[in-house]
Specification:
190 residues; alpha+beta; 6-stranded antiparallel beta sheet; 3-stranded antiparallel beta sheet; 19% helix
């Protein structure tokens, strides 16, 4: 296993390719269910697709210290019911641009986008006091946030509950996040 989301390098002459086999018991699947009342609907989170692309770029030795993922599009959600194989392909186009695509059987594209090499830059500083003031119109605590998700059919298990508080203002949202207790022992593994 190269990475928790990339299990094997299956590259050929045409593209750098990685393969993963999931069984639905992985925490990022088991704790991410949509329309849970209709049965075992475990879905690969969108963030996991991006992490697969990031990890594949690192494994492939893209040469760039920093890659920026752009134009990501989720064409069809990846459901996992029992054993499920997912592949990720990287296709280099030169000048620091690499396309990525996550797909499954039978050749269903789940996510695609591109990565571009970029210069390391310092993260911009955010004025948290101003952000709190601008987003103070509505506030929800942890329990209210996840109750609202449950009402929409989104069942996030303990490992997928990082939102401690959510504030909404005019055109912006501010969230306070914390590592879920269910994940503390596995921090840094994914």
């Amino acid at each position: 296993v190269l990475h928790p989301l990339l299990h094997a390098n299956v590259s050929d002459l045409y593209a750098q390719r990685y393969r993963s086999q999931f069984d639905g018991h992985e925490f990022f699947l088991d704790h991410h269910r949509v329309d849970a009342g209709a049965g075992e609907n475990k879905w690969l989170p969108a963030a996991a697709c991006l992490e697969m692309a990031r990890a594949a770029l690192a494994q492939a030795g893209s040469g760039a210290q920093t890659q920026e993922l752009r134009d990501a599009v989720w064409l069809e959600a990846a459901a996992v019911r029992g054993e499920r194989r997912l592949d990720l392909a990287l296709i280099a186009h030169g000048e620091g641009r690499v396309d990525f695509e996550t797909y499954g059987e039978p050749d269903t594209i789940h996510c695609q986008g591109r990565a571009t090499a970029c210069a390391d830059a310092a993260a911009p500083r955010l004025d948290l006091d101003a952000a709190r003031s601008a987003s103070a119109q509505q506030r929800w605590d942890h329990d209210a946030v996840y109750a609202a998700f449950a009402a929409m059919g989104l069942d996030y298990g303990p490992a997928h509950r990082p939102i401690a508080e959510l504030q909404r203002g005019s055109g912006e949202v501010l969230a306070r996040l914390r590592l879920p207790a269910a994940q503390e022992a596995e921090a840094g593994q994914v």
